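Box 3.1 A note on notation
Throughout this textbook, protein chains are presented in two layers. The first layer is the amino acid sequence; the second is a token string describing backbone geometry. Keep the layers aligned when reading.
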Amino acid sequence: MLLLSRTRSISGALQRKGHHHFQRKFREISPRKFTSLPRQFLEAYDDLNFDPSTHQRNDVLFDPVNGKPPIASLNNTQSTSVTLDTKDVAELINKDDGGGDSSTSTSSTYSKDWIRVHEERWRNNPSDFDCQWEDIAMQNSTNAHEERNDAIKRVLWSNWTEDMLRDPSISPILFEYDSLRDAATRDSKSANSNFCDTQEKRVLKALYQYGLVLITGTPCQTDSLPEEFINPSLPKNANSNESAESALLHLTSLIGYHPLQTLYGPGVWSTSSKSTFYNDDADGNSASTADSAYGSTSLPLHTDMTYMASPPGVQVFLMVQPATNLPDTDSENNGESSNSSQSSPTGQSVYLDGFAAAHQLRIEHTDAFDVLASTTRQYRCVDEQEGWHLEASGAAIEAVPRGTTVGECDKWGPVKAIRHNDLDRLPDLPPYPNSEDLMCTDEFYTQLSKAHEAWDDILRRDSMRLVISLQPGDCVLVSNQRVMHGRYAFDASYYPRVVMGCYVGMDELFSKWRTNGFRVL
């Protein structure tokens, strides 16, 4: 016996009064004037096809005993087919444009905003999802209108400076930890708090738009750092008894519920130029330190954990202690002043908007964009001591492919993710040849080398790179599959450079964004 869905028409289903329906007036016009979405898509999205509690589809036919699908009937689809006429489609869409002579009130299932969102996802035009920092800065100065969350675009930024980001009057990504913690405390005690106005949502919006958030004043006290490695001259946060670990977990809960377990530990991790003091978690389990971050050399711009099938969505990065050296006693005794510390790098953090870089590459070198978007590259991490061997693959630029193209520039839609880490990338292998002709192989390496050079040329531009000297208590939320990060070198110091952090999964971040109404590709 099969569970068969009852035959019904959409127009009949529209007469059902439910919590998703309300009364509006519509004009009876051609469906194409309402939407270009396929009728089959609109039919399948009928509310009656989804369970109101689980939100799973309930129009799927299967045997209630063994779960087998029904035998296909190629000649008879009457039991599952639904036909829409012009009036049905008009009634499906909330199109209150003030015109028409019809005075018939009908239940509406799809709003104009719902239609717009799905049309944009179907069309995959990059301009529907992205805008430039210069444009949004001008708009903010002339127009205070607040957009709907499902219309907010990702802002591709460049020419950012540390001074600008630390200026609360102009910085779009600056927050204070105490404000976030106080807001969370007030919201938990107030039954009438408006979730849309919480600091949590502001953080999620900034992370969605810019891929980067700077939070100052984050507690950075930790018992994990041996006392002999603590710089006594650093300022203490006397107003907070909260530990760095607790603060990181709180921030993680705002943007992704809980930390993502990785080879670096199940929760909070630490990297340092003296990594030996923080290798174990609270249960005595050893965490991997097989990474160049546990050193003092510079790090090129990269995506973290490209060797995972799904790299982390967010890196939560807290500066606990910048690198410092002991004073040069010989120079002090001789009355000399040393300027070496001013000229030498001090471990500054570097950030670059990968979506903005991909946009620039698409403009300047369309062929290079196509190569990096269509070539799968392999990444690897091996930690023999801890027994880890991770490998994953993906394109350096993951863009949405478009169904039809007018020209080469229309082949790809908006960029979904960046996967770039030259240190973890394995040698590239071309597609297996169908003949003995080696010209295809040579062409593969030539095109890929030129595309990578064009990509590197954009990554090295100072206008694209944001350089910040992070201070104790500065916490940076980095959208890992969008914004690449790196580091300047620093001198090996007596007081080590110590950072702590954790990761948030991509699915968890996407869930937070969707819950708050932001569009996710």
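The first helix runs from residue 10 to 13. The chain has a mean pLDDT of 78.
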